[in-house]
Amino acid sequence: METTNLDILWSLLFLILLAKEGDFMEFKEQGPRKNILFVFISGSMFIIQSFIILFFNTQLGTKLPTYFTLNGFVIYWFNYSHPIVVPGILLLGVIHFGGLILVRYIPLLLKSVPFAWKFLKNVSYIGYILFSWIEFLSWTILIYFFLYDSQTMYLMLTINIVHLLLLIVGTIYYRKKS
């Protein structure tokens, strides 16, 4: 049985709801300024990307990439009989909304896990790195709408490697700091 992106999304949503219901420990949530900043960044990226799709709609393909490997290879495409203007904008909207959910709830979820809390006292950086990763990947996916070749795959692979290294270096830094 193959795991799809929707299965992973539902699992994360279920874990977030479990973490919100149980008060495992006291923790400080993000302030409203940071939330507004993330909404502004994600919203402005989404608006810019939507305008790019609308402006260059004649160059859009009819295949919507929906399932990727870590090296940037597209495993699954949705095929349409017309250019993917509306489905592309909707997919990018879901990606940006997912980034907002990750930056908000992943640190809260990790703080509710006793092992992660003992290992790292500060886990908010993980949400920031995941948000950055999602926002960069949204630009790569936008490029996939217009062009699918090896350079785009290398771009996605590079983004994945850089953010994985940021996560490792951040974890080492905050582990030594605590």
Short structural description:
This protein is mainly alpha-helical and 178 residues long. It has helices spanning 5-21, 32-55, 85-112, 114-119, 124-146, 150-177, and strands at residues 63-68, 74-79.
Written description of the protein model:
- Keywords: Membrane, Transmembrane, Transmembrane helix.
- This protein is mostly helical.
- The protein has one domain (31-64, 73-177).
- Helices cover 71% and strands 7% of the residues.
- The chain has 6 helices and 2 strands.
- A two-stranded antiparallel sheet has the order 1-2.
- α3 runs antiparallel to α5 (124-146).
- The chain is elongated and about 55 Å long.
- Mean pLDDT is 80; it is low at 17-28.
Notable characteristics:
178 residues; mainly alpha; two-stranded antiparallel sheet; 6 helices; 2 strands; 71% helix; membrane; transmembrane helix; transmembrane
Please give the number of β-strands: 2
Question: Which band does the percent of strand residues land in?
Answer: 5-15%
Taken together, the total number of domains comes to 1
Number of helices: 6
Radius of gyration: 18 Å
Write down the secondary-structure element order. HHEEHHHH
Structural class by sheet pairing and helices: mainly alpha
Query: Looking at the structure, what is the overall shape?
Result: elongated
Q: Tell me the strand order in the biggest sheet.
A: 1-2
Distance between the termini: 41 Å
Task: Characterize the largest beta sheet: strand count, sense, and whether it forms a barrel.
Answer: 2 strands, antiparallel
Uncertain parts: 17-28
Keywords: Membrane, Transmembrane, Transmembrane helix
Transmembrane segments: 36-56, 84-105, 125-147, 153-174
